[in-house]
Design goal:
The structure holds two protein chains of two kinds. Chain A is built from 16 helices and no strands. By secondary structure, chain A is mainly α. Chain A has a domain at about 220-285. In chain A, helix 7 (about 120-130) packs parallel to helix 9 and helix 13 packs parallel to helix 15. The radius of gyration of chain A is 21 Å and the shape is elongated. Chain B is α+β, with helices and mostly antiparallel strands. Chain B has 14 helices and 30 strands. In chain B, helix 8 runs parallel beside helix 10, helix 11 packs antiparallel against helix 12 (about 535-550) and helix 12 runs parallel beside helix 14. Chain B is elongated, with a radius of gyration of 33 Å. The chains are: A mainly alpha, B alpha+beta. Chains A and B meet through helix 4 and helix 10 of A and helix 11 of B.
Chain lengths: ~290, ~600
Amino acid sequence: MRLRVFAAATPAALALLVGAAPAHARPAGGAAVDAPQVIPLPADTLKRLKSGDPAQIKSALDDVRVSARAAAAAVPVVAELLQRGLPEALTQEAIDAIGDTESEAGAAAVAWYTRDRSPAIRRAAVSALARTRGSAAVAALRASLSDPDAGVRGLAATSLGSMKAKDAVRDLFVALEHRIDEAAASIGQLCAGAECDRLTGLLGSVAFDVVTGGLDQVLFRPASEVSDDLKIKIVDRLREVGTGEAHRFLSDVQAKWPKGWSRKVKEAIDRSVQATAASPGASGGAP
Amino acid sequence: MKRAYPFAAAAALAACGGAQLQLTRFSTDWTDDGGASIGRVYERVGQTRIAPTADVVVGVAGHTDKVIGLPLDGGAKWTFAHPLDARPVVAGDVVVVSGGGELLALDARTGKVVWRRSTGGLPVLGAGDDGTVTAVTLQRAGGSGSTLLAVAHDGQVVQQIETDKPLGAPAVIGKLAFVPWASQYVSVLDLSTGDEVGRATLREQVSRAFTQGGALWFGQAAFVRFDAHIAGASRGKASIARLPARELPGTPKLVPGAGGPVAAVSSAADRVRLYAHPEPTSAGAAISDDTWYATYFRLVMAFGAHEGKLGWVHLHESDVIGGAAASGGVVLCDAQGKVTTLDAKTGGVVAEADVGEPLEACVVNVDARRPPGAPRDVKPLAQQLAEAVLANDLELVVAQKLLLRELAGVTDEGATQTLIDLASDPRTSPDLLPDARRALAERRNGAAALVAALGRHYDFLRDVLRPPPVGPIALALAGMKDGSGASALASHLLDPADTVDDVKEAAAALAVVAGPAQVPALQQFLGMYRARAESDDLAAAVVSVGQALVSQGQTAIVAAAAKDESTVPYVRERLQALLDAAPPAAPGGK
C-alpha cells in the first residue's frame, strides 16, 4: 500500500499519518532513521509495571514504548493495568504503549477506552488500535465512526483504511455521506470494483478534494488490487469533469506515476492532462 | 321592527356635543338603598321574556375595513366594507360597528344597515339591544367619560346621555337600559325619560351587561344573574356563577378590554382568553355543562366548573383569536378564519365553518344554539395531552409546562411514552425539558417503553444525535425495582455521549436492579474510572457501581479497588464503607 497525502487531506488524517511510524523508528531526538533499531525491554519492566507505584509504572511504560515491538511480553501486563484502572496520565501512556508494541494482544483492553468519557483518551485508543490491528480493533473502530467527537470519527475512518479493513467499506461510505472526509482516502485504499466506481461517482456531489483524496489512493494501488481498466475509467471520469482542479490533480498524478507501471494507464493520464489543459484555472490558482 | 320612542332626540350626535339630556345619573353621591330600587326594577321587568341574541361570527378583515358575518345556523355569509376604530359588538340581532366618524347597526343575519348615526369619531365600548332599540356606550374624545346613545331601529335617537364616568357594555330589556359603570354599579335607565330608576351595587367587578339563555347577566370575572336575588347584590346575596381559581398560562380574562374600547385588531389578550356560558337554574346560576374554557394561542383547554379539573385539551392549527362558550360546547374562531365548534365533554370537533379569509379579529356570539351532531376525532385525554406538549411551538411553552404537570398525573402507560418522547426530542424547549425529565423520573408504569428507549444510543452515522433521557428512565426503573432494563442501563454506563449526570443515575439504578449479566460492564466501568473519577458525579457513579458489584458477590474486585492507593480517595472511602456494611461473602464468592 502506498499512502499519499494531497493538499485535501485533513489535519486529522495528517496527524495520524505522521504518527503512523512505529515508535521504535523514532529515536528520542525525533529524527527519522532508515532502519528501526530494536531496543530490548529492560529486565525489570514487568516488575515495575506490577509495583503499584505510579512513578515506577510510568518509567516502565516509557521503556515499553521505546522497545515497541520488542516489548510484546509486557503487553498482557499493560492490558491488565488498563483493565484494573489507572490515573488519567498513566491511562493515556498505557494506551500509547500498547499501540507502540503493535501487539494484537492488547487490543481488547485498549478497545474499552474507545468508549471513554474523555475525547483525548478515545482518540489515543483509536490511534493505538490502528496499530494493534485484529478483529477487536476493527469492531471498535467501526463503532467509533459514530463517536460524538469529530476527531475520533476522523481517526477511526483513517485507521480502518490503514488496517485494510475491507469489511468496513460500507460503513466508510456512510461516514463519507456524513462528512467524515477522512473516509474517502480509506475507501480508496480498500475499495474493489463497484465500490471504487461508487467513489468515482461522488465527483460532482462531494467536494473535489475529498473525492480525489480517495481516487488518488485507488490510482496508486498495485495492479494486483486495482485493474488498469478501473484506473483508466477513473482518469476518464476526471477528464470529463474538465475543471482546472481536475487538470491539476491529473498533472500531479502524471508527475508521480511510477516508472514501469502500466503504460495504458499512463497514456490515459497523459491524454487527460492534455485535454484539460485549457480548463479555466488549469494553470494554477483558482479559476 | 322599527319604532320611534316618544322622547327621542332628533339631533345627530356629532352636531350636538352640548345637547346633554340627563346629567344627574351615575352619581357617586349615593347611598346604597339595600337593593330597594333594583328590586323594584326586577318587579317591573323580571318576568319579561328575553329573546335569544344572534348566533353569529363577526370577523374583522382586510385593513380593519371589512366586516364579515357568518350566521352559525347556516345562513349566508355577508360582508360590509367600512373602516373600524373598535371591535364590532353583537347586541341582540344587530352588529354594532364604529369607525369613519359614524356608528352603525347591521342586521346580524344579513349585514344590512339597520341604522347609522354620525358620532364625530367616538369608538364603541359596548352595546345592548332588545329588538327595538340599541343602547350603545361610546368612549368620549380624550378618553374621559362616556356617552350612552340609545337609537331606535328606525334610526331615531331615543336618548343621548353624557357622563364623566366610564361606562361598560349595556343591555336593554323592556325599555330599560342596564348600564355597568365604575366597575361596581349597574344603573338602570328608563330610555323613555333618561332617568335612573334603579341601581345595583355588586360585590363582583362588573363591566358588561348582557342577555343569554333568556336571562340578564352582569359580569366581568364572574356572572351575576338579574333575578329575584338581585336586591341582595350589595350584601353578596345575588345569584352568581363564577369560575374556580386555578393556575392558568398567561393571565386570561373572561371579558377583553374592560375599561376601554376593544381594539379592532386582535392582540395577545384575545389569544389568551377564558370562555364560559352562564345559564339560569332553579337555584340561581350555573356554568353550562359544568365546563369553562381557556385558550392560549393554539391551545384550547376545558376545565370543570367546580374544582377546575382539566377535562380535555385541543391543539388547534392556528391561534384562536375569538370565541364564545355555548351550551354543549365552545365555538372558536382562528386567525385563518376557520370557525370550529368543540364538544364540551370531549373536546371533539362538532362542526367547522370558514369565514373565507384570514382575520384581524373575530367576535363570536352564541346564545340559544347548541352544537349540532356528535363530536368526531375524540381522543383520550392522555393522547390530547401528548399532542399538546409535543407541539413544537415555542409560543406554547408556558401552557405546555402546565399541561406537562397534568400529564404527569395521568396513570396511562401512554403518558410514559409521551414523556419519553418529550424528553428525547431535540426540539423540546429548554424551558420544558427539565419538567419533562422530572415527570419521567417519577413514572411508575410503562417499564417496557422505558427499556425500549434505553435501547437507543447516540449514533452519528445513523443521525441519532441525542441520547435518550437515561437519568430519568433510570430513576423510574429503580423506583419500580424493574430489572428488565438492567442490561440497557449497563450499556449506558459506557456511552460517552451520555451526560455524567445520566451516567450517575444509571449507576445508582444498577445498584438496585443489576443482575449477574451486568457484572462485566460493571467491572469495566469500575476499572476505567476508579482512579480517574475527578467529578463528584462520576465518583458517585463509581461508588454505585461498586455497590452493584458487591450485591452480585463481586467483593474481591471492589476490595482491590478500595485498597489501591491510585483509587480516588472519596471512592476508596465509600467502597470500603460498602464492604464493611456488606454481609460476609458466601463460600465460593469472588
